[in-house]
Amino acid sequence: MMGSIMKKFIFVSGGVCSSLGKGVAASSLGALLEGRGLNVRMVKCDPYINVDAGTMNPYQHGEVYVTDDGAETDLDLGNYARFTKSALSRASSITTGQIYESVIRKEREGLFLGQTIQVIPHITDEIKRRIMAVAEEDADTDVAIVEIGGTVGDIESIPFLEAARQMINEQGRANALSVHLTLIPEVAQCELKTKPTQHSVKAMQEQGIQPDLLICRAPVMLDRATREKISSFTNVELRAVFVSFDVKTTTYELPLIFAEQGLDQVALEKMGVAIRHTDLEPWRLMMRQFHGRRGVARIGIVGKYMGLHDAYKSVYEALFHASLACGVEVELVKVDSALLEAAGDGEAVLGPAGSHPVDGILVPGGFGDRGIGGMVKAVAWARVAGVPCFGICLGMQVMVIEWARNVLLWADADSTEFNERTARPVVSLLADQAEAMRAGMYGATMRLGKSESVAREGGKLHSAYGQRRVWERHRHRYEFANRYREEMTASGLILGAFTADGSLVECVEWPDHPWGVGVQFHPEFGSKPIAPHPLFTAFVAAVKARG
Ligand code: GLN
């Protein structure tokens, strides 16, 4: 929009402790700058040594977010996707593991011509090179917002902060800002404490970075005197001290809350950019929808990681977005599939006839056989009771298994992921994948990233999307087994979509049912509060109609 005469960089770091909402703050700033007409690119630097998040346990680290180009990344990229229009790709997620991997590879290839390889400059140069590469990938990018994971003071974060310091020095202060997020805790339920913030900024200064803007996470809005105190101790101008107070509505209100405090205005002034107009109407409309919701739709989420909200983050967010579009609140009823498996009677847990506690069932993605029996039970109950059911990836595979077992009466029908010896492998690997798996090449067998599916004319998918050709992201190994297509369809199961070449089944739909849809892809990654995903909207609308 500025014609990108000079690209700007904003480094977002955090202090005091983790989980302050750094990703949401960085994303909100991105949304506000987009409201000013700027093109924003979001980047996440993760100090962990894993090369990517693909192998990380969802219980420790939350869901794996998948980009269009098939990178398995930190869930923070999901925040960027929900708040901003930033293009996200493999390059948007930088980890210590990737940095070291490529520096060591270059060293082995002899590219450093005998130099001693050190954290400074080799590691920091590689970090800077990657940040620049994202900012320069698209000529139209005006601002790259670079979130640095971890907390200032962590050993692992030091190379990233050092790279940020160097870039601020090289680009000049007007072209590279530091935004620092800290915590203002409340002690003894009455006193707000600024000391941790003072220390956190001091730690940044020791790294050679003077924050330009501060965002203070606090239970409530801070008064002027407190902000003055923070300003005088930290060398951050009073007008550049912002407050991210606990919102009672939704974190999606934060862009508007920050706009009211002037966050984008001050950031633009500090970068020497004069843009007066701003368009936050989509966010205002979203808040009007939020307050206009009536009634509650209860949706049972049947999965195996129920103890950690972040494990199915994008699914929960997409349901919330759909609740805005449908004008109804969504209440999540989290059902542990392993417990449901052990519980005996699925109906007793999910809804005895007449007084069902849930109006819809969603089975999200997953790996491994724990709790599959519980998911099958939930799906069977929804199919027979006429309760809307949405299966995503593993969830679709479970719908196929349930159909084979209970409609075709193939008692041991299964996915070869869970039972390699089943007589009816209704979900299985493709032949060449099975070959690769036998050779131990797990990484190479995953279907990852965006591809085209073609929906059946007049089917549930077609009517939800309003078009037959759709592009969605995948992350799975196993497929609907093509050799059962005929028997499945003859018994009534509808194959609702195929890959563009017709070779793979992408969707199943239940016949004579209000809304039973399983998709092999992950629509949840493509939903935003200001643009809910049509499939989630169709599902929640069906749940609402029943509730
Ligand atoms: N475990 C299944 C597979 O690999 C489903 C994966 C998923 O749900 N993301 O095919």
Shape assignment: globular
Ligand set? glutamine
Q: How large, in whole angstroms, is the Cα Rg?
A: 25 Å
Q: Which runs of at least 5 residues are low in confidence (pLDDT < 50)?
A: none
* Spatial strand sequence of the major β-sheet: 13-12-14-15-23-22-21-18-19
Count of separate DSSP helical elements: 20
CATH T-level fold name of the largest domain:
Rossmann fold
Strand content: 15-25%
Helix content: 25-40%
Determine the N-to-C terminus distance.
46 Å
CATH architecture of the largest domain: 3-Layer(aba) Sandwich
Largest sheet composition: 9 strands, mixed
How many β-strands, per DSSP? 23
Q: Looking at this structure, what is the CATH superfamily of the largest domain?
A: P-loop containing nucleotide triphosphate hydrolases
On the 0 to 100 scale, the average pLDDT is 92
Structural domain count: 2
Briefly note the structural class of the backbone: alpha/beta
Assigned CATH class of the largest domain: Alpha Beta
Question: In short, what is this structure?
Answer:
This protein has 2 domains: 8-286, Rossmann fold (3-Layer(aba) Sandwich), CATH 3.40.50; 292-546, Class I glutamine amidotransferase (GATase) domain (Rossmann fold), CATH 3.40.50.880. The protein is 38% helix and 21% strand.
Can you give keywords for this protein?
seven-stranded parallel beta sheet; single chain; about 550 residues; globular; Rossmann fold; about 40% helix
SSE diagram, text form:
Blueprint: E1 8-14, H1 22-35, E2 40-46, H2 58-61, E3 65-66, E4 72-73, H3 76-83, E5 93-95, H4 96-108, H5 119-137, E6 143-148, H6 158-171, E7 176-183, E8 186-187, E9 191-192, H7 195-206, E10 213-218, H8 224-234, E11 241-245, H9 254-261, H10 263-270, H11 281-292, E12 296-303, H12 313-326, E13 329-336, H13 337-343, H14 346-350, E14 360-363, H15 372-385, E15 389-392, H16 394-406, E16 414-415, E17 425-428, H17 431-438, E18 447-455, H18 460-465, E19 469-476, E20 479-480, H19 485-490, E21 494-499, E22 505-509, E23 516-519, H20 534-546
Parallel strand pairs: 1-6, 1-7, 2-5, 2-6, 7-10, 10-11, 12-13, 12-14, 14-15, 15-23, 16-17
Antiparallel strand pairs: 3-4, 8-9, 17-20, 18-19, 18-21, 21-22, 22-23
Helix pairs in contact: 1-3, 1-9, 4-5, 5-6, 12-20, 13-15, 15-16
